[in-house]
Write a structure and sequence with these properties.
With 186 residues, the chain is mainly α. It has ten helices and no strands. Helix 4 runs parallel beside helix 7. It is elongated and about 60 Å long.
Length: 186
């Protein structure tokens, strides 16, 4: 794929395709250079080190994930919003597992906090408006959901987890959150 004008976006898109094929830790500048039909040293201008490229690729994947989560909430509220958010989360874990599994690695956790966790807390604040959750409670809800999806990542990737079970689990979690955090008016 000979490119007339090499830029960072082209390099990142190519890198993302390679991550699907060989995983994030298999990403190498020489593979990107071969695919783009350029010399490896010319990539450094656009990517920096391999570590910087990996961080850029993971950040882009997180941005894509967050955008999909945002789209899943549009026009929805309450349980419907919670379920659609969960279904979107599961679909990303299934379809983009090469990225999803590295989101929680130590070197990317700060980026996850900024790009995903903060968004999720805002989403849960909106979904559970009736509960009037505190910041600490929102963090608890976000952690419960993150741990749920981390725990099932392999099942989603292997397609051994069906949507009926997912929706059932999400309904149970949703009702548990509502029951545990609904404030009694005095």
């Amino acid at each position: 794929m000979k490119t007339s004008r090499l830029n960072k976006d082209i390099v990142i898109e190519c890198a993302m395709e390679l991550v699907y094929e060989s995983g994030l830790h298999g990403l190498r500048l020489n593979k990107i250079a071969d695919r783009l039909d350029v010399k490896s040293p010319s990539l450094y201008t656009h990517t920096g080190s391999v570590t910087e490229l990996r961080q850029s690729v993971v950040k882009r994947a997180m941005e894509d994930f967050r955008e999909q989560l945002v789209d899943s909430l549009l026009g929805r509220a309450d349980l419907c919003a919670f379920i659609e958010l969960g279904k979107t989360w599961a679909a990303f874990a299934k379809n983009k597992n090469a990225f999803y599994t590295v989101f929680y690695e130590k070197e990317y956790i700060d980026s996850y906090e900024k790009n995903i966790a903060a968004f999720l807390r805002a989403a849960f604040d909106r979904i559970f408006t009736v509960c009037d959750l505190t910041d600490k409670e929102l963090i608890q809800v976000e952690r419960v959901m993150t741990n749920y999806f981390r725990g099932h990542a392999e099942s989603f990737a292997e397609n051994t987890f069906n949507e009926t079970d997912l929706v059932s689990d999400l309904e149970i979690i949703y009702n548990g959150i509502r029951q545990n955090f609904t404030k009694v008016s005095q």
